Amino acid sequence: MEHGLTRIGTRGSALALAQTELVVSAIKTKYPGAVIEKVIISTKGDRETDKPVSSFGDKGVFITEIEEALSNGIIDMAVHSAKDLPGELKEGLCIPCVLPREDARDVLVTRAGNLFEDLKNKTSVITGTGSKRRQAQFLRLCNNAEFKGIRGNVDTRINKLRNGEYDGIILAAAGLKRLGLDKEKDLAYKYFDKEEIMPAGGQGIIAVEARNEDMYGNTYTGRILRDINDSDTFIHFQNERKIIEASGAGCNSSIGVISYFYNKDNEEFLCVNVSGGLGGFRMAGQGFRVTGRREDAASLTDMAIRYLTSLSKSPAS
């Protein structure tokens, strides 16, 4: 039904709701008469907050219940952080739409006065992150880091930092910015560029999931998602997702990957960067970076996959 009720499934965290509001805003810009209902769905990952995700599942723990609701017609589309998506979606579902990418970098958040350079002079730096990718890369920058797992919403993690449980915590810049928590006066921020800490695949991207039948048919939902999709970000999403799928990377993976455009001499180029595996980070020339044209996306991604495959076959050093 044209301009009928559109039900959008989302997790209930402040960040999930902020990201869903961005999707709602994009829809309203293209379809001012759209009637939208946000449907909050609790996932296993939201409920199990007292232990590491790796102890009870992988990326799917943040989307399984939402996918069930989508498959069963309870919702019409679902909003996810792209980096939380598992390699394989539920049968009959797809990601046809992404919004423009926010800042993809990782950031170390500390209490004001505890600058990153100062922390490196301490005996040990209690650092909040359960991500093997962040741990492996941050350790190269701060060899006195001592890692301590941390779960919970962004504001919960920041409060743990404020309470002195950690010297610093590593978070995605995109989440901080979407929540307006990137300029707190009692906190300090150290942003890492992709050469220092390479992001997780999909980091900073909001992905919208739908049923295949809506995208193959000329449905209202399908038209909405085609109209609000950001085509440039979608190229990067597909590149990074293909690499993550091929590598089997999950929440417990050390693989980082990012795809981006850049301009040189007034010409546009596409770059795909990957890092990961034992000895595979961008140190001692062992990372992988490949560039080409926009139309070369598939071949560039295939080269990155071959690089990661070669790492997995090499003996650990």
What does this structure look like?
- The protein is an alpha/beta fold.
- It contains 11 helices and 13 strands.
- A 5-stranded mixed sheet has the order 2-1-3-10-4, sandwiched between helices.
- Strand 6 (125-128), helix 5 (132-141) and strand 7 form a beta-alpha-beta unit.
- Helix 1 (14-30) crosses helix 9 and helix 10 runs parallel beside helix 11 (297-313).
- The relative contact order is 0.15.
Give the helix/strand layout.
Elements: E1 5-10, H1 14-30, E2 35-40, H2 44-47, H3 64-71, E3 77-81, E4 93-98, E5 106-111, H4 116-119, E6 125-128, H5 132-141, E7 145-148, H6 154-162, E8 168-172, H7 173-178, E9 187-192, E10 206-211, H8 212-216, H9 220-228, H10 231-247, E11 256-264, E12 267-275, E13 288-292, H11 297-313
Parallel strand pairs: 1-2, 1-3, 6-7, 6-8
Antiparallel strand pairs: 3-10, 4-10, 5-8, 5-9, 11-12, 12-13
Summed up, what is this model?
This protein is of the alpha/beta class and 317 residues long. 33% of the residues lie in helices and 24% in strands.
Distance between the termini: 60 Å
Q: Give the strand order, joined by hyphens, for the main sheet.
A: 2-1-3-10-4
Specify Rg, calculated over alpha carbons: 20 Å
Q: Please, how many helices?
A: 11
Gross morphology: globular
Percentage of residues assigned to helices: 25-40%
Attribute tags:
317 residues, alpha/beta, 5-stranded mixed beta sheet, globular
